[in-house]
Amino acid sequence: MAEENTQGAAGAQQEAQMVVQHVYLKDASFEAPNVLQLDQRGNEPEISLNLSQRTDKVSDDRYQIVLSVTVTSRQDDKTAFLCEVEYGGFFQLSGFSEQQLPYVINVLAPNVLFPYCRTQVGNLVTAGGFYLPPLQPVNFEAVFRQRLEEAQKQQADAASGNGQQQPPSADE
Fold first, then answer.
1. Which residues contact 116 (CB under 8 A, 6 or more apart)?
2. How wide is the angle at C-alpha 107 spanned by C-alphas 92 and 23, nearest 5°?
3. Residues near 17 by Cβ (< 8 Å), separated by ≥ 6?
4. CA 113, CA 123: separation in Å to the nearest integer?
5. Which domains are assigned to the chain?
6. Which of 54, 107, 125, 170 has the most crowded CB, counting CB atoms within 10 A?
7. Contact of 144 with 131, CB cutoff 8 Å
């Protein structure tokens, strides 16, 4: 009888699970506004990578997460190219606690979407006639931890700032 209760309790506990239901290209654009003005003698371009993410809760355990990757190449003061790619995914996230959910949304889901973005960026840049060194993997966990630390620091600064500021007394 004890075994039945144990099995019942184990069966009642839901295992945390992330299911990728659908991944899709949401938007892509490529611009090469200054091709004729670029110096063809070999000045190394400066390449920058920007990431952003949007999350929409579709239902109780279903989320749409969109990862945006923007790659900009500049040579001297001119933009060689600007490539923007957005990949979205529908993720079913069940069994995660409220503390675990931000990690899953901000680390695990972007790890699924980034390779798709990286491939599309490479294809667009190549089709535009430019060379782009392979985009290196992004450590989304480090980015997430850094954001948490910054938020905690801002909260601490705000809390200590409120305690130090006192309204002037009537004598002043």
1. 23, 25, 87
2. 45
3. 92, 93, 94, 95
4. 16
5. 16-157 (3.10.420.10)
6. 125
7. no
Angle at 133 between CA 127 and CA 136, to 5 degrees: 120
Looking at the DSSP assignment, which residues form a beta bridge with residue 82?
Answer: 31, 72
Burial per residue of 54-83, b for 16 or more beta-carbon CB atoms within 10 angstroms, e otherwise? eeeeeeeeebbbbbbbbbbbebeeebbbbb
Query: What is d(CA 82, CA 63) in angstroms, rounded to the nearest whole number?
Result: 29
Whole-number Cα distances in Å, 39 to 76, 80, 165: 9, 10, 55
- pTM to 2 decimals? 0.78
- Write the pLDDT tens digit of every residue in 20-70: 999 999 999 999 988 777 766 667 789 999 999 999 999 999 999 999 999
Helix (H/G/I), strand (E/B), else coil: 14 = coil
Question: By C-alpha distance, which of 58, 64, 71 is closest to 87?
Answer: 64
Rounded-to-integer distance, Cα 36 and Cα 84, Å: 21
Token pair belonging to 155: 């909260």
